[in-house]
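Protocol step 4 of 6: structure prediction from sequence.
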Amino acid sequence: MTVDSTAARKPRGGKRAGAKKPAAGAGEPELVQLLTPEGERVEHPDYAIDVTPEELRGLYRDMVLTRRFDGEATTLQRQGELGLWASLLGQEAAQIGSGRATRDDDYVFPTYREHGVAWCRGVDPTNLLGMFRGVNNGGWDPNENNFHLYTIVIGSQALHATGYAMGVAKDGADSAVIAYFGDGATSQGDVAESFTFAAVYNAPVVFFCQNNQWAISEPTEKQTRVPLYRRAQGYGFPGVRVDGNDVLACLAVTRAALERARTGQGPTFVEAFTYRMGAHTTSDDPTRYRRDEERELWEAKDPILRLRRHLEREGLADEAFFAGLETESDALAKRVRDTVRTMPDPESTAIFENIYADGHALVDEEREQFIAYQASFADEESK
């Protein structure tokens, strides 16, 4: 089930003929790969996929626009417009590939970094920013796009997804559920419990782990002695490791896992082996715990550059396409900036609402104290 980036290059014009299951190169992890870092298409016996030139250009567009939005959000946070931001830089292929594998009637449970998946589900990017600016609790209706609100508590959404999937199965619906989390979340009890319930009840759920190598400042080797995808075997369902920087492999593997779930074959654990190019969040400084050489090694595997090389080498996109996408990217960035800077501030007392269904004496007392505290500033200004 493995290919490796050092494999021989194919002749220009198609997939490498007769590709079987080449062994991973020295120091390379075993994983499913359909597109090498050099932009070469290779075949995999278990995950064949046919994509049209238009679909390839669409995947490239998705990744480019998602990265531009993500970069703009990071800049806005640095300028004081957002309180925090969790960048997905380097993980675009894992998110776009898996996101495009879902159907409209599937349900997605994200963490707080799935901006690319949100894009695929039709959530307006500007809606993602309201929570990080502190003006709302999410900004979108989860049932409108079957995309749940972001979950900050690490790993808890895996249980939510499993419970939802169990309900889907009882309803007899022809749909699946997918839960996203990072490598650090696999150390959480909630994820272990969700694996148990999903296996025992044969829930139609896909657990999609973006192994970006670092759970904040903890490397993966401090969390497990075996590859993460092998954990699924102990719970009684299959696991697969995919090249998380290969958008085609992520699309093919996730599509197969979702179809398996829909047809009553139960859960699958997908480990997308990728890398977080930036900080964990904008409050983090990755230079304190990882070397520049490590990042440089992964920059050579950049998911967007990989697909661009393929498009160029196969003559599937011209300069007009790339220039038009750059113009579209600039327009998206401007819309994001303008929207964020014109977001209305929430009512300051809204924090006290919806705590208890019928109100509470202590909350009422705290609200009055807060109102008096704010009024004291107005009194100072009037003097």
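Step 5 (inspection) to follow. The two ends are 75 Å apart (CA to CA).
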